[in-house]
Amino acid sequence: MSVVVVWTGRHRLHEPGGEVWVGVRTPGTELPERAERIRAELAGARIVEAREQPDSALLAVHDGALLDYLSRAWSDWQAAGLDRDPGQDRVVPYIFSHPGLFSAGVAPVDPAAASARAGRFAYDTMTLIGPGTWEAARAAAEAAITAADLVLAGEPAAYACVRPPGHHATRGAFGGSCYLNNAAAAAARLRSGGAGRVAVLDIDAHHGNGTQAIFYEDREVLVGSVHVDPAAGWFPHFLGLAGETGAAAGAGANRNLPLAPGSGDEPWLDGVRLLSEWAAAGGAEALVVALGVDAAGGDPQSPLEVTAAGFRAAGRTLGELGLPTVLVQEGGYDLDTLGPLVREVLEGVEEGLA
Ligand code: SP5
Ligand code: ZN
Fold first, then answer.
1. Among 85, 177, 202, 289, which residue is least crowded by beta carbons within 10 Å?
2. Cα–Cα distance for residue pair 209/169, rounded to 1 Å
3. pTM for the model
4. Integer Cα distance of 218 and 69 in angstroms
5. Any residues with CB less than 8 A from the CB of 247 and at least 6 apart, and which?
6. Whole-angstrom Cα distance, residue 310 to residue 171?
7. Which residues of the chain, if any, have pLDDT below 50?
8. Pairing relation of β-strands 157-160 and 47-49?
9. How many of the other CB atoms lie within 10 Å of CB of 1?
10. Angle 339-344-350 from CA coordinates, rounded to 5°
11. Other beta carbons within 10 Å of 347
C-alpha cells in the first residue's frame, strides 16, 4: 500500500471507561483496541510518527476556553475529590449551560465547582474524560495535522490512524466520543499551507456535526456528509438534515445527505458520488476524508448496511477527484472488520488516484 500512515501510540492513554447513556454506564465501543486493529491490518505500510504541533494549530478550529478546560478537566476533577466521593472515576457532566437557562443579556458564569464545569463544554453524557484523555486527543489532532503536512509536502495521500475520533467536536463543545476535531484541524492546516479551497467529505455513519459547525460560515471549506438520518432517531439527533446548507459567507458550502436506516451500498455510494461531484464543482483543491467505517453492515453503532466492496468503491470515487488527500479515522466499532474495511477504502483511494 502506498498511502502513508500517520500513527501515535499515545491514543492508548485514552481509556473512556464506558459511556453514560440514558443515565447508565454502558461498556462503550470507542476502545483502544480499535486503533491497534487497524494498525495491525496496515502493518506493511509506511508509518510516520505524529509530530507535535503548537497550540495555534488547535486554536484555528477550537476556542481557547475548550482547550483550557480539556487540558485540566481530569486534574480538576481529581483535585475536587470527585473520584473518591462520590467515586466517579471519569469526568461526567451533571448540569448543562443549556440555552434555555438564559435570558437576553444573561451569560453563563464559569462555574466554580469542577462537577459543574463539564456541563459548559460537554453536550452529552457519553464522552467521558479520564487521566490520559487530553494527551491522547491532542495526539490525534497532531497526527491529522501531520498527515496534512505530508500531503502539502507532496504525498498524494496520507491516512491518520487516530482515536479518539473528532468529527462531533465543535469549536466550543465536545461530545459523541470526540474531544478535538481532527479532520477540521487537518483542513485548517491544508488551508494555511496554501490550499485555496478544501473539501471535507465525511463518510462516517453519523453526521459530522462538529465539522459542519466549525466551517458553517466559511466559504473556503466545503463540508459534506453522508450519514444515517438523524431525524429517523440517530445520533446526533438534533441536526444533520439536508436543509442545513451553510450561512453568511458560507451559504451553499455545506451539504448533508441523510439516508434511511437500512440503506446499503447503492444509496450510500450515490451519496459519496454526489458529494464528490459537489466538491469538484465547488473548486476544491485538497480533500479531507472523515473516514468512519461504521456504515458497515454489522457495525454495532449504526443501521447502515454498506459492504466491503462498497467501501472500496467509495475510496475509488474519492481518489478519482485527483486531489491531495488526507484521510482521518473517525468511527467504526466492529473490531473484527474495522481494519479490513479501512484497507478497502485506502486501496480504493489509491486505485482512484492512479
Ligand atoms: C465518531 C462516532 O462514530 N461517534 C458515534 C457516536 C454515536 N454514539 C451514539 C450512541 C448512542 C447510544 N447508543 C446506545 C446503544 C445501546 N445499545
Ligand atoms: Zn460514527
1. 85
2. 8
3. 0.98
4. 26
5. 216, 217
6. 32
7. none
8. unpaired
9. 15
10. 125
11. 18
Per-residue cell: 257: 445527505
- At 1 the pLDDT is 84
- The pLDDT mean for the chain works out to 98
Residues marked as catalytic: 168
DSSP structural state of residue 118: H
Question: Which residue's CA is minimally distant from atom 8 of ligand 1?
Answer: 176
Whether 159 and 5 have beta carbons less than 8 Å apart is answered as: yes
- C-beta of residue 91 within 8 angstroms of C-beta of residue 179: no
Tell me, using a 6 A CB cutoff, whether residue 177 lines ligand 1.
Answer: yes
The position carrying cell 453568511 is: 248
Assess whether the C-beta atom of 93 lies below 6 angstroms from ligand 1.
no
What is the Cα–Cα distance from 129 to 70, expressed in whole angstroms? 8
Cβ–ligand 1 distance for 202 under 6 Å, the answer no
Distance between CA atoms of 262 and 290, rounded to whole angstroms?
21
Residue 231's alpha-carbon distances to 52, 214, 238, 290, in angstroms, are 39, 22, 8, 21
pLDDT score at 186:
99
